[in-house]
Design brief:
It is a single chain. The protein is mainly α. Helix content is 86%, strand content 2%. The chain is built from three helices and two strands. Helix 1 runs antiparallel to helix 3.
Length: 225
């Protein structure tokens, strides 16, 4: 409301114009106040409705928050359960893989050891066979050498005996040739005996020549000291 109105006095009281003007202004102000009041009441109603709505929303919000909290707890519990299950399954799978890897590794080591043992055994057998073969060859060579030594010794003894026999024959030859008379007076059988006597060295020479050639063909030339 406006400040207090002041009216000028007239002859018979207050001036009507002032009163009317004041009344008009007051009505205007009253109408404005009513309109403002109506507006304020409308705003208050809107505010009241909003408050009611907010209170309803607050209840719904609280309910939603509680629902979200319960959902969060449920999700967390389910996630934890799934995580525990996943970790357990992963651990079991890892243990299975480790067990299989260890078994496969042990099998591979066993196979490798078996192959190595087989290779070593085969190598040992081969080495033993080669050693036995070499030993047999050495033994054969020793036998052959011993036989050669015996044959050489026998050949040498025969050769020496033959040389001695030839030397003895040469030593027993007469220094002078017999006279023609002695030759004529000699029995007819004497030359035959000489031929027979001389035939023996020839036969021995033939035997010696045969043995020497056979020996040379078999063992090569032998030099005797």
């Amino acid at each position: 409301m406006s400040k207090e109105a002041k009216f000028e006095k007239a002859a018979f009281g207050y001036r009507p114009e002032d009163v009317d003007r004041y009344v008009a202004e007051t009505e205007k102000k009253l109408a404005a106040a009513k309109a403002e009041k109506t507006e304020l009441l409308s705003k208050m109603k809107i505010l009241a409705d909003k408050i009611t709505e907010y209170r309803s929303d607050e209840g719904n919000l609280k309910e939603a928050m509680l629902g979200a909290q319960r959902l969060k707890s449920s999700i967390e519990s389910e996630a934890k359960s799934k995580a525990d299950t996943t970790v357990s399954e992963a651990q079991e799978y890892a243990n299975k893989l480790i067990s299989e890897a260890q078994a496969k590794s042990s099998q591979m080591i066993t196979d490798a050891q078996n192959r190595a043992a087989g290779m070593i055994s085969e190598a040992q057998k081969t080495a033993e066979q080669k050693v036995n073969s070499v030993a047999s060859e050495v033994e054969r060579e020793r036998t052959t050498l011993s036989q050669l030594q015996k044959e050489v010794s026998g050949f040498k003894n025969k050769l020496i005996a033959l040389y001695r026999e030839h030397l003895s024959l040469i030593t027993n030859l007469p220094e002078k040739a017999p006279s023609a008379l002695a030759a004529s007076e000699a029995p007819a059988t004497q030359p035959v005996e000489k031929k027979e006597a001389s035939a023996a060295p020839a036969e021995k020479e033939e035997e010696f020549a045969f043995n020497a050639d056979a020996f040379a063909d078999k063992f090569g030339e032998v030099k005797l000291s």
